[in-house]
Amino acid sequence: MDKENELLSLYWQDNHLYILDQRLLPQRSEYIKCVTYCDVVSSICNMSVRGAPAIGISAAYGMAAAALEACEKGFCPEQVRSYLKKASNELFQARPTAVNLAWALQRTDQWLTSNSKATPQQIFDGLLEEADKIFAEDLENNRQIGANGAALVPHNASVLTHCNAGALATGGYGTALGVIRAAVSQGKNIHVYVDETRPLLQGARLTAFELNHDQIPATLITDSCAGYLMSKGKVDLIVTGADRIADNGDTANKIGTYSLAVLAHHHNIPIYVAAPLSTIDLSISSGDDIVIEERCGTEISHINNHCLAPPEVNVYNPAFDVTPAELITAIITECGIVHNPTPDKIKKLFTKEKS
To answer: N or C: which end of the chain has fewer CB within 10 A?
Structure first.
């Protein structure tokens, strides 16, 4: 596969999943060969692959990998299904906040339920086909999100974005960066301010890398600089992605997003959330129900295994925060835009999807 001119977070080839190790970017571009579903679990846990849509796609291929393992072990259909249940449980537990992970596993479970008489080989073929569909649908959805969201981006706009919601976080094109890419493709003169996004620097390492790749003008800033830029009138709008959106529009995204929303509200700057419908979790009524992942404190206290803080200091490292719906100007999806999100408005998106 020619990856020279593409930003691929992952791909399936020769019956193996290859995951771009995003921990190494932008210095090195290396792919991890996932032979077993446990390799996929590990890649999700250690953030070799990250971004809610990309995690979901990886999980779907992880189930295909598990089915292939079961076939190679000579398991009977019942044993295959038992092995797949184990794999699904472990993949589900890999990261708790991104709902696309559970959504993709539900898709594979639905396939298994609908094909109860399938042979082991048919199970592998079917799960691989389902994973391919999820991958292709995500890319198509991202392009539609971009097309829908571009209308909200004025000419000569300065856009602030947080973390990485681009091709690297999805099946391709991106959600928040998809909006920016689509606006640029329409001939709009866009400049992007990129939050570094501590502690793992997804903005500095990944978003800046993607924008550079696409030759879109960008300026990297510290997270704490965002408010100052707003106060100086240098930010026209904010676009972020999302890891989980509650029924009422409350949105979990990378830690620091809530702070941006409060600042944006104070400075009367619109903040848009770009995400596919698969990121909306209608089973939870508000952001209070979203489980927030807490990660190892060394992500904050250390850089490249070098300790920057006193060894005895306590560290609190939530990976995400929740922005209340009332602070969000609009949610951009593949099925349309929800301004001033409410439960009724969000539910109508799913009606559009079915129609």
So the answer is: C
Q: Which of 255, 303, 245 is nearest to 276 (CA)?
A: 245
Confidence of residue 6 (pLDDT cuts 50, 70, 90): low
Spatial separation of the C-alpha atoms in residues 252 and 244, rounded to whole Å:
5
Q: Which residues of 174-184 are buried (b: 16+ CB within 10 A; e: fewer)?
A: bbbbbbbbbbb
Cβ atoms 52, 94 nearer than 8 A: no
What is the enclosing helix (H) or strand (E) of 190?
strand 190-195
Question: What residues pair up with 294 in beta bridges, in sequence order?
Answer: 318
Give the span between the Cα atoms of 264 and 272, in whole angstroms.
11
Cα(281)–Cα(346) distance, integer angstroms: 10
Q: Which residues contact 218 (CB under 8 A, 6 or more apart)?
A: 191, 192, 193, 194, 207, 208, 211, 212
> Domains plus CATH for the chain?
10-142 (1.20.120.420), 147-354 (3.40.50.10470)
Structure confidence by residue, pLDDT tens digits, 85-103: 999 999 999 999 989 999 9
The pLDDT tens digits for 150-172 are 999 999 999 999 999 999 999 99
Closest by CA position to 327, among listed 262, 238, 242: 262
For residue 248, the SS3 value is coil
Contacts 24+ apart (CB under 8 A), 26-33: 26/205, 26/206, 26/208, 26/209, 29/3
Spatial distance between the Cα atoms of 205 and 196, rounded to a whole number of angstroms: 8
CA distance 321 to 174: 21
Q: What is d(CA 163, CA 274) in angstroms, rounded to the nearest whole number?
A: 13
C-alpha 190/C-alpha 211 separation (Å) is 11
Nearest to 352 by CA among 139, 144, 102, 169: 144
The pLDDT tens digits of the residues spanning 135-145 come to 999 999 999 99
Which residues neighbour 117 within 8 Å (Cβ) at sequence distance 6 or greater? Answer: none
The residues annotated as belonging to the active site are 243
